[in-house]
Amino acid sequence: MATGSAAPVFALFSSILATSARSPPLLSYSPESLAIASSNPSRPSQQLRNPIARRRDFLAGIAFASVLWKGPSVSEAKEVEVGSYLPPAPSNPSFVVFKATAKDTPALRAGNVQPYEFILPPTWKQTRVANILSGNYCQPKCAEPWVEVKFEDENQGKVQVVASPLIRLTNKPNATIEDIGSPEKVIASLGPFVTGNTYDSDELLETSVEKNGNQTYYNYVLETPFASTGSHNLAKATAKGNTVILFVASASDKQWASSQKTLKAMLDSFQV
C-alpha cells in the first residue's frame, strides 16, 4: 500500500528538485545587481525575486510531500500473517498469542481499557479498524462502544474486541459484570455490537458464567441468520475499570463447519 502511494510523491519531489537545479544559485548574482536592488527596495529586481520565489516554492513542495508521505500509524493493521510477528502461545504452540499494549489502540493509550490477550491461528491477519469505529475521535470520554482490534481469515471467520463505556450499562463506578446484571441483560444491551446490526433474544442459544481469579466472564453462543458479522457468533464479556470488554468470534455457515473448534479456542483464551 505504501509503495503505491509513494510513487506520485517521489515524482513531485523529483520535479521540484529538477526545477531548482536549473535555477542559478541565490549567491551567484553580481554586486552590481545587488546594488540595483538596494537602491530601489520597493521594486526588487526580477533577478532576485524569482530565485527567492523558487526556493519558497521548493520548501513548500517539501512540506507538501512530507504530508503526503506518511507511513502507517501504529494503530493500522499489519497486512501480513500474524504468525510472522506474534509469539507462539505457551498453552498451544499451534496458535500465536496477541497481547494488547498501549501502542495498539487509542483507548489503551488513554487508559480507558485494561490490557487484554487471546490466541489465534498464525495464518490470520489483522485488519484495519475505521477511524469512526475505533473510538480515536472520542477518547478519553466516549459515549458509545467502539472497536478495539479486528483479525480475520477468509476461510475461518473473524474476531473483534469491542469496548463499551461502563456508564452506558450502569451508574455504579468500577462495577463488575455481575453488578450490571444477568448474562441475558448484558447481551440485550451489547447484542447489536455482536451482530453488527440488530439483536433478537431468540438468537441466543446458550449462556455460561466463567470465573478466572477475581474476574467474571459471561459466555454466549448465538445463531444469527441476519447478522452482518455472520450467521454464527460466539461472545465473551467482562467488566474492568470503566469499560465492558466484549470479545466476538464470527463465522458464516461455510466457515463454521470447519472452524468452530478454532473459534471456540480463541474465545476461551480471551482474558483481561
From TrEMBL:
GO cellular component: extrinsic component of membrane; photosystem II oxygen evolving complex
UniProt keyword list: Signal
GO biological process, one term: photosynthesis
The keyword Cytoplasm is assigned to this record: no
A GO molecular-function descriptor: calcium ion binding
UniProt superkingdom: Eukaryota
Annotated signal peptide: 1-21
TM spans (from-to): none
Domain PsbP C-terminal per the UniProt entry, residue ranges: 115-272
A Pfam cross-reference name: PsbP
The protein's name in its UniProt record: PsbP domain-containing protein 6, chloroplastic
Organism whose genome encodes this protein: Phoenix dactylifera (Date palm)
